[in-house]
Design a protein that fits this description.
The protein has one domain. The chain starts with a helix and ends in a 9-residue tail after the last helix. Helix content is 65%, strand content 0%. By secondary structure, the chain is an all-alpha fold.
């Protein structure tokens, strides 16, 4: 399968039982940018899910999961690693709860009940995207030598008020 075919049918690690959406790392930026990031990851998920339409549940509940996850990260922003880990959990629970209606659970989790297997699979994927990649991105962008030049060009962060 070439890149064009993969894009046109959906990356199996992005839309399916694994749900490793690297774009979810942007959820962690809610700790730094607040409401604009929260709205951005929510709208981005809506547009993505609407494009790769699985059904109304995915188009509605996926963005709600991102909204909740980004809000959790924002609320817990003073403890960023905890925020990123906690922010991954709503995605795992919400998305993992409705995906069994669209996909069978991953074979490696075959002995688990279907809903538990899917929730576990999506939670692990979200922990990688938000908890590891997202936290790393947040830490890198929060460094003074990175943030100061961006702020000098008008970038607003949560601490700017």
């Amino acid at each position: 399968m070439n890149v064009i075919q993969m894009i046109s049918v959906g990356n199996p690690t992005t839309f399916g039982p694994v749900q490793l959406r690297v774009a979810d790392c942007l959820i962690a930026l809610s700790a730094l940018f607040g409401l604009p990031a929260i709205l951005g990851v929510t709208a981005g998920c809506f547009l993505s899910n609407a494009y790769y339409f699985l059904g109304p549940a995915d188009v509605i509940l996926g963005p709600i999961a991102n909204l909740v996850a980004a809000s959790v990260v924002f609320i817990l922003r003073q403890r960023r690693l905890l925020a990123c880990i906690a922010g991954a959990l709503p995605i795992g629970v919400i998305v993992g709860s409705y995906l069994p209606f669209f996909f069978p659970p991953p074979e490696i989790l075959g002995s688990f009940p279907v809903f538990a297997a899917m929730i576990l699979s999506v939670t692990i994927s979200s922990l990688i995207a938000v908890g590891i990649i997202g936290y790393s991105l947040l830490a890198a962008l929060s460094r003074p030598n990175v943030l100061k030049p961006l702020k000098s060009h008008g970038l607003k962060t949560v601490s700017d008020g």
